[in-house]
Amino acid sequence: MSNKVSVVVISGDREQLQMAAMLASVAAVSGSEVTIFLSMNAMRYFQKGDASLAPAEGEVGVLLQNKNAPDFRELFQSAVELGDAKVYPCSMALDILNIPVSDLVDYVAEPLGLTKFLDMASDSQVWSF
Amino acid sequence: MNDRKIVDAKNTFCPGPLMELIASMKQAEVGDELEVLSTDEGSANDIPEWIKKVGHQVLDSFDENGVWHVIVRKEK
Known about the structure:
The complex is a heterodimer. Chain A is an alpha/beta fold. Chain A has helices at residues 14-29, 59-66, 72-82, 91-97, 114-121; strands at residues 4-9, 33-38, 84-89, 125-128. Chain A has one domain (4-128): 3-Layer(aba) Sandwich (Hypothetical Protein Ychn, Chain: A). Chain A is built from 5 helices and 4 strands. In chain A, strand 1 (4-9), helix 1 and strand 2 form a beta-alpha-beta unit. The two termini of chain A are 22 Å apart. A 4-stranded mixed beta sheet of chain B has the order 1-2-4-3, covered by helices on one side. Chain B contains 2 helices and 4 strands, in the order E-H-E-H-E-E. Chain B is α+β, with helices and mostly antiparallel strands. In chain B, a hairpin with a 2-residue loop joins strand 3 and strand 4 (67-73). Helix content of chain B is 34%, strand content 33%.
């Protein structure tokens, strides 16, 4: 059983971002080496100072907000700070959105392309959200 | 050192209580005991699983008026 976990996060929906963050953070603090790849509509939520709420897809997304579930950005940060996780932004998504790396939250690592990510993920469990 | 540190993680949801416990565990010394309080039953079930998986020891786990208490000793 692989002890490496890769998480691809592309959705901008609150539930998807939350589930990805929960899985990544728990894996990271349980001894797995976790690689998180951010792209597409997920990218905006990792800009510094962007406290905007990701829109809820349904009932649970609304309840996450009302019931004080941990913020997904904080969970990704916990994954990096408390466990062995790295968060890589997709270089293509940064280009398309015209976001400089310096605009991203501090716990994000250097931008990555797909060739490198595929290589890193080749011997891991892969989850996508 | 036997002072038991209380980690009050009431009123947040999975995996918030686990993350708060782990943050405190990082600062604790081997042999220290920590007691995490959670109002989230899912966390009360998941935290002992985590403790066993990473090799610490669950000393006790109980529900008191809707607040779950999990007591752990840092083993490494």
